[in-house]
Write a structure and sequence with these properties.
Radius of gyration of chain B: 21 Å
Order of helices and strands of chain B: HHHHEHEEEHEHEHHEHHEHHH
Strand order of the largest sheet of chain B: 4-2-5-1-6-7-8
Low-confidence stretches of chain A: 1-6, 140-144
Largest sheet of chain B: 7 strands, parallel
Helix content of chain A: 40-55%
Distance between the termini of chain A: 13 Å
Oligomer: heterodimer
CATH architecture of the largest domain in chain B: 3-Layer(aba) Sandwich
Structural class of chain A: alpha/beta
Low-confidence stretches of chain B: none
CATH class of the largest domain in chain B: Alpha Beta
Number of strands of chain B: 8
Largest sheet of chain A: 5 strands, parallel
Number of strands of chain A: 5
Strand order of the largest sheet of chain A: 2-1-3-4-5
Mean pLDDT of chain B: 87
Chain lengths: ~140, ~300
Amino acid sequence: MAEQEQQTPYRVLIGKPGLDGHDRGAKFIARALRDEGFEVIYTGIRRTAAEIAATAIQEDVDAVGLSSLSGAHLRLFPEVISELRTRGGEDIPVLGGGVIPDEDIQLLLEAGLDAIFTPGTPAEAIIHSFTEACRKGTDGDSKK
Amino acid sequence: MATARSKDLLTGLLSRDPRAIGRAISAVENNTESAADILSALDQKAIDRTLVLGITGPPGAGKSTLTSAMIRTLREEQKRVGIIAVDPSSPISGGAILGDRIRMMDHALDQDVVVRSMATRGRLGGLCASAGAALRIMAAAGCEIIIIETVGVGQSEMDIVRLADITLMVLAPGFGDDIQAMKAGLLEVADFLVVNKSDLPGAEALCMDMDQVFRDKRENDGIPRVLQTVASENQGTLQLLTAIKTFARHMEGEGIKKERRHKALDAETLDWVMEILRPRFIEAMSKKAEKKDPRIRAKELIHEFSATLNDE
């Protein structure tokens, strides 16, 4: 069968783990990604790491973006990665953003986060990171 | 030839592995090599057994909340449920924000609630084909009831609704009078009309209007067709599901379900024809710009295309 030529859109999940309810940043990123042609599954505020990971698996996303403004990122972001791993989603890249002190960035990258964004990161840089992560997260078959 | 990958996915579907279900749906949605292998090997009996519900209605009427309330009730009955939540793609960027899941997150950790968000991807009818395939994959992975949820505006959404065995139109007070609803044309395809947010002022009047509209249908079988819910409070969902089940039995008995499935498959097949042909015609058109009348040009293109088929 002739395969379509055009690139199919990348699917990403944007979620907020933990108890902070400030979702302006997450929604801003969701809109920015949509405007770049991404399909964004938005799971809303106050989700557990397990809920986010289970949703990412069901939706077969190419990457997961997490936002946290409450200071709990050192616990919550790696927890999402480990929940993904227990569900067979170790290949799905996880990116994180929020109010994250410089000294934590390296720790998060070492914990397996693909990229970390802070309030100063330009939107273009964030989109670029997501594109790169999705390219990596896409397995051989689901995209052409 | 089934590849190792599609074999793995099929095994995964049978063992209800969420990763395999998600990947199999992506494979058909993106029309990849594995898609044909997977689709041709699905368990037809499981597909025939499933009941497919279509939920449509204007934005904000409470479709996702009602879906979530129905999932809760169905889960209490130990039913395995599938949900296909459709949201529109941006016509400009091609991207989409798929937000129906927010209302369904209560079920995120329940392995027997399989949710898939799908964007319309701007295709004329192509979505119908991928949603149809997705629901068969869910059925093969053991989902007994599958709900397709979509905003009820536009042709492609109407097409998706046709995939359903039973269609529910969700309205809420404040969305206009019965004339608005009649205009939408959706009332003709809807089997049930759900007046959600029925604790709000205006619900009673809306129900009376809708009762009027639905009077003909009701006389046939005595099943209530206009139902009231407050989905956010989980009110009325049990009554709604009871009416749906009664209707489902009635349909099964009269052979209506079979007939509707048949029509849905025809519509999907036509969709695939368009999906497969579209890129070839776009390519042919891009090769030579012409100022001819489009109808004449179309006939010429088809003529040229069938000539290439004979060559193959």
